[in-house]
Design a protein that fits this description.
- The chain is an alpha/beta fold.
């Protein structure tokens, strides 16, 4: 597989939910309060800041918890903000994440943390791969979550480039991409691929610079395995049984992923979910919280306050 093909697949399948065109590590959140010491587990690390009703933030593929830096200070004024990071992202050691089971490990360890910390039913927010994890958590542990915000994530990512996709159909391709990404470990990072990926996933120059740095800082073995699990997880049959209220935040822009194309995609993908509301944010790509921080913060505030 050529680097060009890998870049396209990586941009569309791993991090991005940007529609096709028509025919650095930061472990400590930037909050005014002092964060709790980081707790490191086999698959994830967790730190928290603030006090009040708990809100859990899960970043996406190759992203550190720093993706939430723009919303943490305000959120921590009235909530205990729990920041998850997948081991191997943000420059961290991979732990057990170079082997299969990243998503399952994330969900199990997060649930253990919720029970141990007596958090009851926290709100969970997940971006991209983290959004898929949030849905999986709601399916597995409905009594340990009050509501879920999914930020630009689909129940089955493969439908973006194969409308009739099934897991058996995409598995060979997902496996090949995983192998190539893992094989790049220990070699000089391909900055051109990282830049092209960032340019697909964000619109603003400052957003793109951050995304590029995060992609380069991620362990490609972990990104490869996480991407494989993302591409081969199909939650469409499970949506009707997820009774946890879902808020879906999705982007659109004037070109490519227009609102006219985004609306039917996202509304259709979640049509069988019994309790779902939609928040669209324009002039944005996949990293909504970076491209449109004020609009995203408003959506998040409404979500955590039950509005």
């Amino acid at each position: 597989m050529t680097n060009h093909k890998l870049n396209l697949l990586f941009a569309f399948a791993s991090l991005s939910f940007v529609l096709p065109p028509s025919a650095g590590n930061c472990a400590t959140p930037a909050a005014t309060a002092t964060p709790a010491p980081e707790e490191r587990m086999d698959h994830i690390s967790i730190t928290s800041v603030g006090s009040g009703s708990p809100v859990i933030l899960i970043p996406g593929l190759s992203s550190p918890r720093a993706v939430w830096d723009g919303v943490v200070p305000d959120l921590a004024r009235g909530h205990r903000v729990i920041l998850v990071q997948i081991n191997g992202f943000g420059g961290d050691a991979p732990g057990k994440n170079i082997s299969p089971g990243i998503l399952a490990g994330l969900i199990a360890e997060l649930d253990g943390y919720i029970v141990r910390e007596k958090l009851g039913q926290p709100a969970i927010v997940g971006h991209s791969l983290g959004g898929l994890a949030a849905l999986m958590f709601a399916k597995a542990h409905p009594d340990h979550v009050s509501r879920v915000m999914v930020v630009d994530s689909l129940p089955f990512i493969a439908v973006l480039f194969f409308p009739a996709a099934t897991v058996p159909l995409v598995e060979p391709q997902a496996s090949a991409i995983r192998a190539q990404m893992m094989a790049s470990y220990g070699k000089p990072a391909d900055t051109a691929i990282a830049e092209a990926t960032a340019n697909r996933l964000a619109l603003k120059p400052e957003s793109r610079a951050k995304v590029k740095a995060w992609v380069l800082a991620a362990d490609p073995r972990v990104s490869g395995e996480a991407l494989y699990e993302d591409m081969t997880t199909d939650l469409r049959p499970d949506l009707a049984g997820i009774t946890t209220p879902i808020t879906l935040v999705y982007p659109w822009a004037a070109t490519g992923a227009t609102r006219e194309r985004a609306d039917p995609l996202y509304h259709g993908a979640y049509a069988t979910a019994p309790h779902v509301s939609f928040v669209d944010i324009g002039d944005s790509a996949h990293f909504v919280m970076l491209d449109q921080p004020a609009a995203f913060q408003a959506a998040l505030a409404g979500f955590v306050n039950g509005k």
